[in-house]
Design brief:
Two copies of one chain form a homodimer. By secondary structure, chain A is α/β, with parallel strands linked by helices. In chain A, about 40% of the residues lie in helices and about 15% in strands. Chain A has a single domain (about 10-20, about 25-300), classed as TIM Barrel, CATH 3.20.20.
Amino acid sequence: MIRQQPQSSRRRFLRTTLAVPVLAGSGISAFVAGTTGAKETISTTNSTTKETHAEISKSGEIKFQLGLASYTTRKFDRTQTLAMSRRAGLKHICLKDFHLKLTSTNEECAAAAQECRQIGINLYAGGVIYMKKPEDVENAFRYAQACGMTTIVGVPEPAVLPIVEQHVQKTGIYVAIHNHGPGDKVYPTPESIIEKIQTLDQRIGLCVDIGHTARIGVDVAETFRKYKDRLFDCHFKDETEMNPKGQTCICGRGVLDLPHYLMTLKEIGYDRIVSFEYEADEKDPLPGLMESVGYIRGILRML
Amino acid sequence: MIRQQPQSSRRRFLRTTLAVPVLAGSGISAFVAGTTGAKETISTTNSTTKETHAEISKSGEIKFQLGLASYTTRKFDRTQTLAMSRRAGLKHICLKDFHLKLTSTNEECAAAAQECRQIGINLYAGGVIYMKKPEDVENAFRYAQACGMTTIVGVPEPAVLPIVEQHVQKTGIYVAIHNHGPGDKVYPTPESIIEKIQTLDQRIGLCVDIGHTARIGVDVAETFRKYKDRLFDCHFKDETEMNPKGQTCICGRGVLDLPHYLMTLKEIGYDRIVSFEYEADEKDPLPGLMESVGYIRGILRML
């Protein structure tokens, strides 16, 4: 079995994800722009428009970029979702099936990816995608390939992992398995995922949800370090409590040590996407999402 | 003439501004809370609910708090403004006359202050209030006193400054004169204000608008240091350019060195309010305001 080297895989990943066209002001809907919002979203001095750079920091060494996990905007359609992502300055998106049905034809998938590109957003992943049967795996990779996704954020039943591996090797698409914390029988923690995939292709790894990881009492920063070669995506959020009762809240208003987690991602040279999954305010997520984005950018600026 | 000592005046200011009742979840409008937004605004782990503490930082030494200059929400009424301020976690407000007419009776002023208190917001100031004639000064102090404001953010014509001083000494209310940058004939820079007030009561000082100050080419951090004993309010924002063509934008998306300004405020022991004046998106300011608040809180967390 050919083993992919993390470094070369990272380089390929960045070549793909950074190939986002520079956005012209036109075409941003009133929804995203408000009256003068477009000025922020397309300002040339706006860090969010530096298409070919990672996040700004004092040291300038941060290699990862910020994105949106579209579960955040589950009550809105895809066009509204892309507008909100753009307004929040998030130019990488992981689409949940609310915004692109898993039953979409290859043509519909290609059209969705094109819609993202047109607004300056990179459709880097899909998910969380559940895969129970071999045909679910087959379809997930078809869908991801038709969209030009580099990554599937998924929850494959352990039984289908060998089939997942075959598809990874056939397509070169990464699979980032998502841990759902307390209550998740199969993959509660990142470690419970690693146990099941450690002998498999190195392109099968983790999407570490920092909220679920912290709520189950696992050290998020240590997880990042320990499994850095298998870390292919992160879901960022904050939590009101560091236990199963914790509820998601705006970044900076909860108890998670976000500066420590971000410093760790910087130190391990994480160079993929940190996606916001803001689960509160489902009918009006944009303000809380944008405060979360601002908080994380403020911390990154200081790293 | 009795000269007020900055230290004792600061202590009195904080006793006043920190006397904000702890908010119960009830009574927050759907407008502020959205579906689950109230959870963020009243979360016990939410820095914005630590009524008796300043902003969270590594060192825990930050003495100032964040507030809202209600020019930000000029297209919304007072109730909506307070709801947005609360949702953004800003519990100190400077009301512009859009939200409380300068012609309001003493009873209307007292009722407005009570409306603020009921939602857990401290009506610390009014302004920007223009004072051209002696009767404008008379009315501004009546209004501020009826509201229980500690500060008037104002633009008094130089000719009425002696009358302003008389009212400051009679009421103990501070006057923070606001600089409007390029195009402002009277008070373009903080220095142009100091020149006119340096012989007057020390409770007459500055509201440094960092955007206007930077756009006219004046060093904001140096201004904070140089005039720290006369610094009674700040308007925070970002700008797309450090020149007269600069346009206001979301904090972190522009060119101002906000970390340096905040570090300087920390170092000089500034212990009053840093108010956000987010001028863009006048029809939909909340997302940009909240990203700005998040960005500043992220930086403060790292100081």
